[in-house]
Amino acid sequence: MARFFLVLSFALVATSCASIGQASRLIRFCEETGPEDACNILVGEPMKGTNPLMARVIKSNSNGEYWGSNLDLTSEIRQVRTLLAPVPQPPVILGIGLNYWGHINATHLDPPKTPSVFSKWRHSYNHPLHKVIIPPMSSRPDYEGELAIVIGKTCKDVTEDEALDCVLGYTVCNDVSARCYQNDKEAGCPGNGGQFSFSKGLDTHGPIGPVLVTKESLGDASGLHLSTRVNGELRQNVSTSELIYGVKKIVSFISTATTIDQGTVICSGTPDGVGDTFNPPKYLNDGDIVEITISQIGTLKNFISRPNGTEAYKKATTAVTGVTGLSEDLGQYIA
Q1: Which of 60, 108, 207, 232 could form a disulfide with 126 if both were Cys (CB 3.0 to 4.6 A apart)?
Q2: Which domain holds residue 112?
């Protein structure tokens, strides 16, 4: 009998230590409710059909970084209480402008001859189910639902045929924009227009998530359905196959004579239906809820906060911005 239990113990240890496969979808999360800097960050593969949402843990470091790993799954299962962006804070968030014909036609601008690249500042980085805080000087705040490309290894000068070798996978991003700093012709706009990086790089203005799906599952991410809703109203509705410049072209172009660091996130462009192109325009207001869904990935949901006045804005930016004590089913946001 003793020998039987000894053999059984060895078998259990071997089972718990051995890899049980590789993740094709991953989330970063906390077992606690609260902000990112106040919890133990874990990485895992979400388990479909679990409520509350559970995840099978993937090996990562204390910051929830998994670069260079094989995304090996362990037998450890944990409850997800706070969903974070599926990538740690990127070295840079890049954006592609005017990459759908509908958006080009609606803005009455000329199509770019190559991918039109801009950057969002690092602190625009934000999480699912967190607040996007609009400063008082942003009088025309807008949403942009987009497919996000996550770079899995540092690359430079790659061809289109080599481009997917640089890609880890895909998620959803909201390229929140202060339109006044892009185009200052409207009354009440401070400063001058044409400042794309500044207008799109304000703190909290780059939510990413909720899940990363690997390129092994999605290939070049064509044929996915993207939709954006504001307070439940459908605003954007398109297929990623309609991108003028697809994933391979974007990655190849950006890497031309330029090193793209591991962990870089590229928001690939937004379709027609942004608030700025409606008549009258439909800009973001305090209390709005923006939900961007991409099929086979999931839904990125964020809450808009537009504090009234400078002091209220300062108070909002120093408060906890994460959604704490969330009682709804987190699994509903993961496809």
Answers
A1: 207
A2: 93-318
